[in-house]
Design a protein that fits this description.
- The complex is a heterodimer of chains A (611) and B (176).
- Chain A is mostly beta strands and 611 residues long.
- Chain A is globular, with a radius of gyration of 22 Å.
- With 176 residues, chain B is mainly alpha-helical.
- Chain B has a domain of 94 residues: Cytochrome c-like domain (Cytochrome Bc1 Complex, Chain D, domain 2).
- Helix content of chain B is 34%, strand content 5%.
- In chain B, α2 crosses α5.
- The chains are: A mainly beta (611), B mainly alpha (176).
- Chains A and B meet through loops of A and loops of B.
């Protein structure tokens, strides 16, 4: 709570007057709390120390900004590898390590071991490790490699999800199991890959499986016991979706009774998708959580007439009850598998015109950068940040995208050059925001696709797609770009083009650096203002995870990242897919056929420090 | 010489005949096995003893392989293996076989499932259809007679037609 206030204060000052040339921004946040010898157990107290990294998105606002500045633009050229650690699993590593009370916690890909490393001793030796009992068959229903996006800390516990649908809480000091609970069924095609978020006394968890016709949900578990407190489905009747009297959507498009049933052909909402495998933000003042839902199933849109609510939708919910406050559907009747699970970055901005607005900013998969009033769900702006042919803009009056009739998928017909492709202009890999520069650093993808609609048979536990697809590089030929977006002035400021999709998260620091990794194995530090590459290091494998930074017990700043290529774009390497089939890996392999020439599988944590 | 030619064309005609054969009512033993034991390992202690040899009748019929191709999509095999290049499941168009490339191996894989995420379809797909799918799966890596393999796709072309697929290698290789 305290950090929240401090953080929003900083953001407010940063934008006071909104005069970017005349910068009077504070250099860094003050260190609110130094390390104490007895470990703090409550999330609020560890959050107050900005030298730690206590949740995957760094803070509830999802900024991934650290106020540490010991490593900065002047000295980053000297950054060196300090020590490494292997998880031993040669599959895609997407997780952010956590750093709490001088311990680093890592969750590996399936079978999802958890490692606790002691940061008070040289080389970060293992403090404990935990290997969950898991069902091997879960690998068969994991659409996009066996990934896991990280753990959460709260109440002295480390909480994480397993691919086979368990949520497990461990004693952060000993690794002893405190509780575990099973929330889904692999035989329905469900898995869990997201990093849970802990808010107050609740653990928030959502399911994955949008490619298997599952019915999506988010639920809150009691942090003490693991018992479910509330569960919100994302298709079906209002009572299941926790849509009640408090629900006040901004657009008529999202208003009406039981839209989760009526916007589907009869009963098809039961296999409708709308999962939740991405990021959640939390605003303690409004007491609201924000998150978006995944794609509708099947992919072929002709097979599911209607708006298909509440898939590809942003929800604001009361965290205590789960009751929906408002919702906004980015893609009614989503044509292109544009999941809306990306992070919402919560910012308090002085917009041109002067008034302070509580907004959320999202680099959406459909290629638009949305700025949304987070109190009422009004879309203030939606600007393209990528090359788009699939739609012709967003109508701010109705909230609907303006469809491009030439690019509507059809059964039995190949529609070419749909951009962005299914994985979007940006997938789940999270952006970072620096209050010092006012820039959002977005790891993006530049991919287009050919799409042919097919029949789809619903067989529980098997893919429910109905599409033949292949992806390829968009204009320019670079498949990725780390771009800097000025959120107030709503424009791209610079970009660093990458050969492969930029599929790692980004981190911004008060040293005015931006860290991220590439799929060909480079870990890079950019100048946060100019975008110049100030330092880079070649690791053992492609990077698709989330870097973190912290202050060690020795007072030094560290930066760490997990390598291990894989995930959806890297499955050609982690799953040995065959590029002679352009449709392999749901179409991604055709865009990645040269990846095996650049990287092999990996599983290493790299820790960097100044000499 | 004339006799030989005559004989050859007779044989060809007979083969072509089988190629075009459609069995509307499938006998339960559309395919049959002879010999010893289905083995997954190249290691056997002591004296080598014969392996089972299966003749998959569907592998000789264009109609059956084509049906296999249709069923491969209809039962959502293609959702996990794409068009043979793989996805959630491994590629089936290469010469790496974890659980064996012989018809009986692939039949067992489909019926029993495999521990790392291959569902068990036993009891869910009629056996004659499984043999048709087996024949189609083998055509992906060029393991069937090209004259019976499907020659075209009615859909977006994402790979060469099965008929033009060269056999991956004469020696089956196991994954390292």
């Amino acid at each position: 709570m305290r950090t929240w206030v401090a953080c929003s204060l900083v953001l407010m000052t940063a934008f006071a007057g909104c005069n970017r040339a005349n910068s009077t921004r504070p250099k860094q946040l003050p260190y609110i709390q130094r390390y104490t010898s007895s470990p703090a157990t409550s999330l609020a107290s560890v959050l107050a120390d900005d030298g730690q990294w206590v949740m995957a998105p760094k803070d509830y606002a999802n900024t991934r900004f650290s106020s540490l500045d010991q490593i900065n633009t002047k000295n980053v050229g000297n950054l060196q590898a300090a020590w490494t650690f292997s998880t031993g699993i040669l599959r895609g590593h997407e997780a952010a390590p956590l750093i709490v009370n001088n311990t680093m916690y890592i969750v590996g890909p399936f079978p999802n071991p958890v490692f606790a490393l002691d940061l008070t001793r040289p080389g970060g030796p293992l403090k404990w490790q935990y290997k969950p009992a898991v069902i091997s068959g879960a690998k068969g229903v994991a659409c996009c490699d066996w990934v896991n996006r990280g753990a959460a800390f709260g109440d002295g516990k480390i909480v994480f999800n397993t691919l086979d649908n368990q949520t497990i809480a461990l004693d952060a000091n000993t690794g002893a199991e405190v509780w575990k609970t099973t929330l889904g069924d692999i035989n329905q095609g469900e898995t869990i890959t997201m990093a849970p978020l802990i808010v107050k006394d609740k653990v928030l968890v959502g399911n994955a499986g949008g490619e298997f016709g599952v019915r999506g949900w988010l639920q809150a578990l009691d942090l003490k016991t693991g018992k479910p407190v509330w569960k919100a489905f994302h298709t079906g009747p209002d009572t299941d979706c926790l849509i009640g009297p408090d629900f006040k959507p901004f657009y008529p498009l999202d208003a009406g009774k039981d839209l989760g049933v009526k916007t589907w052909s009869p009963e098809s909402w039961r296999q409708g998708g709308g999962t939740m495998w991405g990021w959640i933000s939390y605003d303690p003042q409004l007491n609201l959580i924000y998150y978006g839902t995944g794609n509708p199933g099947p992919w072929n849109p002709e097979l599911r007439p209607g708006d298909n609510k509440w898939t590809a939708t942003l929800f604001a919910r009361d965290v205590d009850t789960g009751a929906a406050k408002w919702a906004y559907q980015f893609q009614p009747h989503d044509n292109f598998d544009y999941d809306a699970v990306n992070e919402s970055t919560l910012l308090d901005l002085h917009l041109p015109g002067g008034q302070l607005r509580k907004v959320l900013v999202r680099a959406e998969r459909n290629g638009y950068m949305y700025m949304i009033d987070r109190a009422n769900g009004q879309v203030l702006s939606a600007d393209p940040y990528a090359f788009i042919t699939s739609t012709k803009g967003i109508d701010l009056k109705t909230g609907r995208p303006i469809e491009n009739p030439d690019k509507q998928p059809k059964s039995g017909k190949v529609i070419r050059e749909i951009c962005p492709a299914v994985p979007g202009a940006k997938d789940w890999q999270p952006s970072a925001y620096s209050p010092r520069t006012g820039l959002l650093y977005v790891p993006s993808e530049n991919l287009c696709m050919d799409f042919e609609g097919l029949e789809a048979n619903y067989i529980a536990g098997t893919p429910y797609l109905g599409a033949n697809i292949r992806y390829y590089a968009g204009p320019g030929g670079n498949r990725g770009e780390l771009l800097a977006w000025d959120v107030v002035h709503r424009k791209k400021v610079w970009g660093v083009k990458e050969r492969f999709p930029t599929y790692s998260g980004a981190v911004a620091t008060a040293g005015d650096l931006v860290f991220y990794g590439t799929m060909d194995g480079w870990f890079k530090a950019l100048d946060a203002r100019s975008g110049d590459t100030l330092w880079k290091f070649k690791t053992d494998s492609g990077i698709i995870s989330q870097p973190v930074t912290w202050r060690g017990p020795d007072g030094k700043q560290y930066v760490a990242v997990l390598t291990g290529v894989g995930g959806w774009p890297g499955a050609i390497v982690s799953g040995d897919l065959d590029p002679r089939d352009a449709g392999a890996g749901d179409g991604f392999v055709s865009a990645m056929s040269d990846l095996p020439k650049f990287t092999e599988k990996g599983s290493t944590l790299y820790v960097f420090a100044l000499p | 010489m004339r006799n030989a030619l005559l004989l050859a064309s007779c044989l060809l005609a007979a083969a072509a005949c089988r190629r075009e054969q459609r069995e509307i009512v499938h006998s339960p033993a559309a395919s049959h096995a002879s010999g010893g034991i289905v083995r997954l390992s190249e290691l056997q202690p002591g004296q080598p003893t014969p392996e089972v040899e299966v003749r998959n009748a569907s592998e000789e019929k264009a109609y059956d392989i084509n049906e296999g191709k249709r069923l491969f999509a209809a039962y959502n095999c293609s959702g996990c293996h794409s068009h043979g290049g793989g996805g959630i499941g491994p590629a089936l168009m290469d010469n790496y076989w974890v659980y064996g490339s012989h018809p009986e191996n692939i039949h067992d894989t489909i019926v029993e499932g495999r521990p790392n995420g291959m569902p068990s379809f036993g009891g869910k797909i009629p056996d004659y259809q499984i043999w048709e799918i087996v024949a189609y799966v083998r055509s992906l890596s060029g393991l069937v007679n090209p004259t019976v393999a499907p020659s075209r796709d009615d859909h977006m072309q994402v790979k060469v037609a099965e008929q033009s697929k060269k056999e991956e290698s004469t020696e089956e290789k196991k994954k390292p």
